[in-house]
Amino acid sequence: MSVTAAETTQVAMDPVANLAVSGVFIAVTLVLIIWASKRSKTSTGFYAGDRSFGAAQNGLAITGDFVSAAAFLGIAGAMAVNGYDGFIYAIGFFAGWLLTMLLIAERLRNIGKYTLADVLSFRMNQRPVRVAAATSSLVITYLYLVAQMAGVGTLAAVLLGVRSQVGQAIAIAIVGGLMLLYVVVGGMRGTTLTQIIKAAMMMSVGIILAVWVLALFGFNLSALLGAAADNSPHGDALLAPGLAYGVSSLTQIDFLSLSLALVLGSIGLPHILMRYYTVPTAKVARKSVAWAIWLIGTFSILSLVIGYGAVAMVGGDTIAAAPGGANSAALLLAFDLGGVPFLAIVSAVALATVLAVVAGLTITAAAAFGHDIYANVIRAGKPTDDRTEVRAGKVGAIIIGVLAIFGGILATGQNIAFLVALGYVVAASANLPTMLYTLFWKRFNTAGSLWAIYGGLTTSVVLIVFSPTVSGLPTSMIPGVDFHWFPLNNPGLISIPAGFLFGFLGTVLSKDRGESARFVEQEVRGLTGIGAAKATDH
Amino acid sequence: MSHTADGVSATPGPDTGVWERTASQPQYSQLKSRYRRFVLPIVLTTLVWYFVYVLLGTYAREFMATPVFGNINVAIILGLSQVVLSFVFATLYIRYANRRLDPLSDALRENAEATSVGADS
Prior knowledge:
The structure holds two protein chains of two kinds.
Chain A lengths: L4 H8 L2 H23 L5 H6 L6 H12 L2 H14 L2 H11 L1 H15 L4 H5 L5 H35 L4 H52 L4 H10 L18 H17 L4 H4 L8 H33 L1 H6 L7 H50 L7 H26 L6 H23 L5 H20 L26 H18 L6 H13 L10
Helix pairs in contact in A: 2-10, 2-16, 4-10, 4-14, 5-6, 5-14, 5-16, 6-12, 6-14, 7-14, 7-21, 9-10, 9-16, 9-17, 9-18, 9-19, 10-14, 10-16, 10-17, 11-14, 12-18, 12-20, 14-16, 16-17, 18-19, 18-20, 19-20
Chain B lengths: L16 H7 L2 H34 L1 H4 L2 E3 L2 E2 H42 L6
Antiparallel strand pairs in B: 1-2
Helix pairs in contact in B: 2-4
């Protein structure tokens, strides 16, 4: 049953089949984009898809926006190589969703219009808070985009056998070009449709993979786990925590830090928060998060079966030695089960995954430029032409898209996995404290907002730069030099409490008592939906 | 397009009294207390259960490795319990909001929109 080394090489060498299914996906989405572009003329159309999506559609789109290629391929891979610790990681991505549903989604939809900055600046001094919120959104979005783009290079190597740097750079440029086409032409409606299709493909393929491999073990999970342990160099240790992070007390604390950043960061990601504006009411926003919880939760359970199933069928050593390493676990399992056609389908899902995520990130950057910075800061107080606000967003999307393509090309082959983790840390340390204080603490004011956002952002970035992730170890991004003094790879354990502390200190040290009337207005809007932005009629 | 309904405009709508008026309704206090009573315990349970799970995974590895059914150990059951708990809480919250929160917020909103012409057009 196991794939030999020669066959493994074969897997990477069937680019035509892998491209064919991906080509169908790209063709279908491009048709939808052109259709969408005819309907998205206003700023509400461009930034919020006219708030016309239903709960199930938005739930799928949230899933498509949230589960990146790193999660789709990476979690199953991490379980195949590092065992159970990979599953704790998957749970960390998932656990924050209920908190989003209970505390954030509905109020955000009722208070804001297009962006997180709408809510954070609602009762504060508009300009400085909006600039701060847009800055942290752009930083998170850019870090995340570069990581995804660099991942395209790896994906091209695994799926298409493209080994040369030039070839990988071309692959990144093509994906970046498609991403800009989706966003600039299709706006939020086109981006959402792409995400819905990707999520539907990903869930279907995930279910087929998991059910298929379980069927081979008579639908007996225990038998599958036993076979995985037998087929892994780690033996039974594969099924218990500790392989990746149990090495020393320092790695254990690092793991706690990562877990904190994952659960709290997923609440504050700007590209996910933006999705709640695409539905007509707060009630639909609530239902759409419930859909996302069911979909992402199911996906986490599927990852458990796929990750261990890959070890059971293919073998832990074969996966670790394959091109792309751990990331190839799901692909090797697909090849083992369904041969070239099934592998081609799973590859197309991986590509669709990248495209849906990068498009979601780019439309978020567009909104930060066009809606926050241009319409509400540069032209603050002046009437803004709807069409100009959209054009400013498109220009912003192109700028950040091109920068991300170059960033991705430069980062290809580098150890940049921490960029996504850094995005989560910034979201948890800067956005989350500000969001919670704004919504639930009456006394919170402009100074507190600025302290929390800039303080959380700076603490996260500084601690990462001086961590062993960047220098000091053979596995660091810059090997050979050592300027690290912070011991943890993930700074969440320090930077998240720091973000909350900054927000608190900034508030109590300033004389500004906040506008109580604006807090009442914000709370009434948030809870009742009075005056909430309406869906556009068509 | 409804421009007065722009939740982000720096200038409040023509009728600024609507917020204070709504906030002083008994239904509004009821909505707030019902929301708080339901959400707070669930938020705390979710956070505590997640960190218990992560801490056990980090510091109680032998306990987590204890087999329960065949090769299915405590770790796998606790991991799945995280997912199942979120499913249950999400479903309960949807039901609770439909029955106990939405009728109040709908009534408050309809009331505000009926009494303040121009706050929302």
